[in-house]
From TrEMBL:
Name the UniProt record assigns to this protein: Mitochondrial import inner membrane translocase subunit Tim21
Function summary: Essential component of the TIM23 complex, a complex that mediates the translocation of transit peptide-containing proteins across the mitochondrial inner membrane.
Keyword terms: Membrane, Mitochondrion, Mitochondrion inner membrane, Protein transport, Transit peptide, Translocation, Transmembrane, Transmembrane helix, Transport
Residue spans crossing the bilayer: 130-152
GO cellular component: a single term: TIM23 mitochondrial import inner membrane translocase complex
Location within or outside the cell: Mitochondrion inner membrane
Native source species: Cyberlindnera fabianii (Yeast)
Length: 293
C-alpha cells in the first residue's frame, strides 16, 4: 500500500547511476515508522472543515487554512465545499434576478399609469398641421368635383354647348336650301368655328353663347357661330330651351349668307296676336251653334 513512498537512492559514481538495495530498505522502514495512518487525518479534516464553514473567517484566512490541509484531506474536502459554494452563488443570483424583475415590473406599471406630459406648443403644432392637411384635402376634392362637373356639363350632356353646336352644324349640312346658299358639293363638310379673330388657327376661335332663365324657370341658350364652304361664308344663330337636360328643344336656327335672304333651318313659333281668334270658336270662346227659329 505504501510502495509509492519508496524511492530509489541513486548516486552518481564517476558519471554512472547505481542502485543500493540496503540503503533503500533502510529508508523505506524509517519512512513507515514516521508516516501517520489515515485514521489520524480524518478527525483533523472534519475539525478544520467545521471551522471553515461555521466561522466567519476572512477570505484570505480561509484560503490559508485550505492550503495548510494535507493533500489527501483537501481532496476529500473539495467535493463537500464546492456544492455549498455553488448553492450560495445560485441563491444570490436568483435573488438578484427576482429583485431586478420586480423593479422593472414596478417601473413599467408606474410608467403605464402616468400619462405622457406633452408640451403645449407641440399640441398646437400637431393641431395646425392636421387642420392644414384637412383643408388641402377638402379643397382638392372640391376642385376635382368642379372640373368633373364642367367636363360633363359642357361635353357629355346633350344640353352642353359642344353637343348643341355639333347638332346644329349637322342640321345645316343636311338642309338642301342651305347647301344651295353655300354652294356646297354633294357630301361635302362645312367648316364651323366661333367668332372671327386675328388668330389664323380655327380652333382658337371661341363660340359665343349666352344662357338666361325665363320667368317660368326654363333655361334658354343663345349661340352664334360661323360656317364656311369652299365657295361662300355664312353666320348661324340659334336658340334652345332646356325643358329637359337630356332633350333640349331648338326654338329656331337660321342661316345668313351675304347677298342672300335669311333661311330658317328651324322656324321659330309664330307669336299669337292680341285680336286674333280661332274661327271655330264663338263669342267669349264658346261656340253657340246655329240660331233656332
Amino acid at each position: 500500500m505504501y510502495d509509492v513512498y519508496t524511492t530509489i537512492n541513486r548516486r552518481a559514481v564517476r558519471g554512472h547511476v547505481c542502485w543500493n538495495p540496503a540503503a533503500e530498505e533502510k529508508k523505506s522502514a524509517h519512512t513507515d515508522e514516521q508516516k501517520p495512518s489515515l485514521l489520524f487525518w480524518i478527525p483533523q479534516s472534519i475539525h478544520r472543515i467545521c471551522l471553515i464553514m461555521f466561522t466567519r473567517v476572512p477570505s484570505l484566512a480561509r484560503a490559508q487554512a485550505v492550503r495548510s490541509l494535507n493533500p489527501l484531506s483537501a481532496l476529500q474536502l473539495a467535493p463537500t465545499v464546492r456544492p455549498l459554494t455553488l448553492q450560495r452563488a445560485r441563491f444570490s443570483t436568483t435573488s438578484r434576478c427576482l429583485n431586478a424583475t420586480s423593479t422593472s415590473s414596478s417601473s413599467t406599471a408606474g410608467s403605464a399609469s402616468k400619462k405622457p406630459n406633452i408640451p403645449l406648443w407641440i399640441r398646437i403644432k400637431t393641431a395646425s398641421t392636421f387642420a392644414f392637411a384637412t383643408t388641402v384635402v377638402l379643397g382638392a376634392t372640391a376642385l376635382a368635383g368642379l372640373v368633373i362637373y364642367l367636363v360633363v356639363a359642357e361635353i357629355v350632356l346633350p344640353s352642353g354647348d359642344t353637343q348643341v353646336f355639333n347638332k346644329a352644324v349637322g342640321l345645316i349640312e343636311k338642309d338642301i336650301k342651305a347647301q344651295e346658299l353655300l354652294k356646297m358639293e354633294p357630301g361635302a363638310r362645312l367648316k364651323a368655328y366661333g367668332e372671327s379673330s386675328d388668330n389664323k388657327w380655327t380652333r382658337n376661335r371661341p363660340i359665343a353663347s349666352t344662357r338666361r332663365v325665363d320667368k317660368s324657370g326654363k333655361e334658354h341658350l343663345f349661340m352664334r357661330f360661323h360656317v364656311e364652304s369652299k365657295a361662300k361664308h355664312g353666320s348661324v344663330q340659334l336658340e334652345t330651351v332646356q325643358a329637359d337636360v337630356l332633350h333640349p328643344e331648338y326654338s329656331y336656327i337660321y342661316l345668313d349668307v351675304p347677298g342672300e335672304k335669311r333661311h330658317y333651318i328651324i322656324a321659330p313659333p309664330k307669336p299669337k296676336l292680341l285680336g286674333s281668334r280661332d274661327p271655330n270658336t264663338g263669342f267669349l270662346g264658346v261656340k253657340w251653334g246655329p240660331k233656332s227659329n
